[in-house]
Amino acid sequence: MIWLLCIGAAAARGEVRVQDYQDRLVSLPKPAARIVALAPHVVENLYAAGAGDKIVGVVEYSDFPAAARHKARVGGHSAVSLEAIVALAPDLVIAWAAGTSSALVQRLLDLGITVYLDDPRRLADVARSLRDFGTLAGTASVSEPRARNYLRQLDTLRTQFVDKKPVTVLYQVWHEPLQTLNGKHIITDVIELCGGRNVFDDAVSLAPKISLEAVFQRNPDVIIASGMGTARPAWLDHWRRWPELRAVRNNHLYVVPADNIQRHTLRILSGARQMCAHLAAVRSAERR
């Protein structure tokens, strides 16, 4: 009861409060008016939450929607400038826990800058991020219906593939070095949504480098690549050198454009539908 009274008092004063992905209480005396976003997917989700006009700084590759390309840059994935962030006088920084240096986050906190740590690992987390961003920016009237619509579409997809025959999947991020994603990455949730099983779900690191021998040992039914941009990466067809692999022998080498599946945004539903269609093609071929 006391907790409810505190929340009510905070709302009356215009305060906003949410728990971030590391269970930290993030609070502001009023909705954020100047936000720095330290990952492209955070930028995209802020726009989806109705808070695009509150963004004052972004990182490299923040290119969706088009308006994001005109925001001030504060660095890239591996080198974010603390000085550039401070110069923008943000009242909120939204960082990606899996992709932002913990030392940078601590420096921001030491300077008294409020930081929200975003770290979506499951498909439902996209809706959570939208809702949190809407609360922090005071745009819940936009973020809430979009989050609900996203979850409705997600539930519809889930019911379509819940009882399908499992398909083993190698999701290939890159070719040199050969790289995939483990079971803690959101793309594994996409694979499982479609009735698939990530053959490297037990890998220790989030984006492990793997050997050709390990792929042969696990012998996936299908290889799905992302690469860069929307074009089919030429290196996907390098697998044809090894027809003894089940995926190669049956010509199950497919592509899902990276931006549709590797960004933790509303667009991941488009990538999920493409993933599900590829796994359905594998099942259909097995029935012939």
TrEMBL record:
<dbReference type="InterPro" id="IPR054828">
    <property type="entry name" value="Vit_B12_bind_prot"/>
</dbReference>
<protein>
    <submittedName>
        <fullName>Cobalamin-binding protein</fullName>
    </submittedName>
</protein>
<dbReference type="InterPro" id="IPR002491">
    <property type="entry name" value="ABC_transptr_periplasmic_BD"/>
</dbReference>
<feature type="domain" description="Fe/B12 periplasmic-binding">
    <location>
        <begin position="34"/>
        <end position="283"/>
    </location>
</feature>
<keyword id="KW-0732">Signal</keyword>
<dbReference type="Pfam" id="PF01497">
    <property type="entry name" value="Peripla_BP_2"/>
</dbReference>
<dbReference type="InterPro" id="IPR050902">
    <property type="entry name" value="ABC_Transporter_SBP"/>
</dbReference>
<dbReference type="GO" id="GO:0071281">
    <property type="term" value="P:cellular response to iron ion"/>
</dbReference>
